[in-house]
Design a protein that fits this description.
alpha+beta; 6 strands; 27% helix
């Protein structure tokens, strides 16, 4: 196995992209192998590493199926439903509270 070429941050050649960059172009790696590494140095720690893929070998993102849309809607509804009062709050309930604001701070609203 040969070692991957390593490029510094912002110095990768044209034609290569990270997963996030591919996703922004509505593409996915599509099973291709990593062709290079992108490294961003950090003080006192190891570098941040991102893997690069060839854009010309990338495939289009698969469209969402109706079942996936339904599962996503169900998951988002669960994130908005308060476990205490069982109401849809209209916003994602913070995990730090564990309940909607009304249930988490009942005395603040009475004042």
């Amino acid at each position: 196995m040969t070692a991957l070429p390593v490029y510094r941050w912002h110095l990768a050649p044209d034609g290569l992209a990270t997963r996030r960059q591919l996703r922004a172009m509505n593409l996915r790696p599509g099973g291709q192998d990593v062709v290079a590494e992108l490294q961003r140095p950090r003080r006192g720690r190891g570098p941040l590493v991102a893997y690069l893929y060839r854009i010309d070998r990338a495939k289009p993102v698969r469209p969402m199926t109706p079942a996936k849309w339904a599962a996503l809607a169900k998951a988002n509804t669960a994130r908005r439903t308060c476990p205490t009062c069982r109401r849809d709050t209209g916003y994602v309930i913070p995990t730090s509270l564990g309940a909607c604001v009304t249930c988490a701070y009942p005395l603040d609203l009475a004042a």
